[in-house]
Amino acid sequence: MYKYAFLFLLSGLLILQSCRKDAAIGQRVDLANLAPEDLRVELNPNGNSPLSAALTFESIVPVRVSVRINGEHPLEHTFEDLETTHEHIIAGLYPGTDNEVDITLTDAIGNFASTTLTITTDPLPNYFPDIETNVITPLRQDGWTLTEFGVGLGTSFLSVPFIFDEAGKVRWFLELDVFSDLSFPVKQLPNGNMLVSYLDHIYEYDLLGNEINDIYIPGYFQHHETRIMPNGNYLLAVDKEGISTVEDHIIEISPNGTLVQEWDLREILDMDRYDLVEDPVDWFHNNAVWYSEDDDCLIISGRNQGVVKVTRNNELVWILAPHQGWGVAANGLDNSDWLLTAVDATGNAYPDEVQQGTTESPSFDWTWGQHAPMLLPNGNIFIFDNGFNRHFLPGEPSFSRAVEYRIDEAAMTVQQIWQYGKERGTECWAPIISDVDRLQNTNRIMHSGIVFGPTSYAKIIEVTFPDASVASEITLQFKNALSDGALAWGGLDLSYRSERIYLYPR
Q1: Is residue 110 a contact partner of residue 68, using CB atoms and an 8 Å limit?
Q2: Cβ atoms of residues 403 and 418 within 8 Å
Q3: Which strands make up the sheet holding 413-420, listed edge to edge?
Q4: Of 120, 144, 172, which residue is a domain's last?
Q5: Does residue 452 share a domain with residue 473?
Q6: Does some domain include residue 8?
Q7: Confidence of residue 453 (pLDDT cuts 50, 70, 90)
Q8: Of the residues 85, 120, 155, the one at which a domain ends
Q9: What is the end-to-end Cα distance of the chain in Å, rounded?
Q10: Are residues 187 and 51 in the same domain?
């Protein structure tokens, strides 16, 4: 009897609750019920991020905000926090378009209201490259592509990192005209903001172009590489003030800019090896640093020498480079004792001419003027081999490639495991800059940052692994609209690196 009475009472309460309009759950309501004020939108409030807008308003009750930018490739994002004061960034607008943007407000019990705003953007500046989608297949890793674009100005660069979608449409860019030359690298942080390095500062910008953070680095000038370590510190390739050489120091700093450690490569490497490039000032040309967390070591790329691994205490572990020309370092140690021996799949060493670097084997070659080494999950090393002065032959046409090596530190050997790019010949030959990456679905990206020719361009090629089928291929056709096209600093447009990202990180 009590059971039936309880059920009767419960059903009555539910009926009564359902009759109360103001207590509805998960119902569409008028926008004024949640936000009595107009939703305020300001496009590009800082003047440096033309495809982003600020959305601000006050809501009556805490709501979360969802945004959908309509178009060929819609972008949706929900700001999950329930708030009453709202300041949100709408990023990913199409250029030169009356963008229709759906805004949905949802309260804690699921009631929601929607409206559509129109945000009109200007066309892209005429210095932007033409983006050609050469290949796109279902094998492509999803996401958009961030590329570090440098606009040649004749004797310097304007840095304009931009992001394009899967159709090759630019959906975000940041004009860094606050700097007088190239700022690199530019990387997306886990919170979606951009890390930008320039001279003796590291900056953080949000997608609206607001400067969020500025870290000052006294006594050094950053170049080529800034990397966040697992402990939250920063690892930087730097020039050290007050010395006669450049691009041969690395530092670790804390998030507030305090110096933690310095590595001086002049102490451990032969500075008089000029077999690839004769330059006593820029003798090493450090262009990338990777942190090896398992053993607290650094993997360092020097375009003019090779790839080296060093310990926390600045001691050599190995040198991945052609054997020709290595001698004694300032510390008195013979660098040739740290050279890796190239071996085939059966462990047999290649002939001496391959070891020296004057020729190659069908299954092995060294890297030449390489960039962007990274450790793969299997412990192997993945590198962009530029083909710069390959086999010590300056000016000879060559090829660039993405190459994977397996290193046996106990045996001091190196085996080439995989490569892509040699078969493309000069079509993808980028003697300078450039990048490689491994994607979440195990696909691999080879990014040729500038291919010289009658017209210069960059190639961003994604291939499957291990069969190296092209999953997507993009060509950035540079216009060199603000430069004279000379083969000199600032004479041509270029693209330093590229990454596959999500505009709003997942």
Answers
A1: no
A2: yes
A3: 341-342, 413-420, 401-408, 381-385, 371-375
A4: 120
A5: yes
A6: no
A7: very high
A8: 120
A9: 53
A10: no
Residue 386, judged by CB atoms within 10 A of its CB (0-12, 13-18, 19+), counts as buried
Domain-located, residue 483: yes
Distance, in Å, from the CA atom of 241 to the CA atom of 462, rounded to the nearest integer, reads 40
Dihedral sign computed on CA atoms, order 144, 99, 132, 486: negative
Of 256, 159, 260, 180, which is closest to residue 213 (Cα–Cα)? 256
Answer yes or no: is 80 within a domain: yes
Query: How many other C-beta atoms are found inside a 10 Å radius of the C-beta of residue 231?
Result: 11
Q: Across residues 463-477, what is the average pLDDT?
A: 98
pTM of the model: 0.93
Residues 28, 48: one domain?
yes
Segment 376-401 mean pLDDT: 97
Is-contact 450 456, C-beta < 8 A?
yes
Token pair for 131: 């983006």
Q: Which domain holds residue 71?
A: 17-120
SS3 readout for 237-273: EEEECCCCCCCCEEEEECCCCCEEEEEEHHHCCCCCC
Residue 15, pLDDT above cutoff 60: no
How many whole angstroms separate alpha carbon 383 and alpha carbon 217? 29
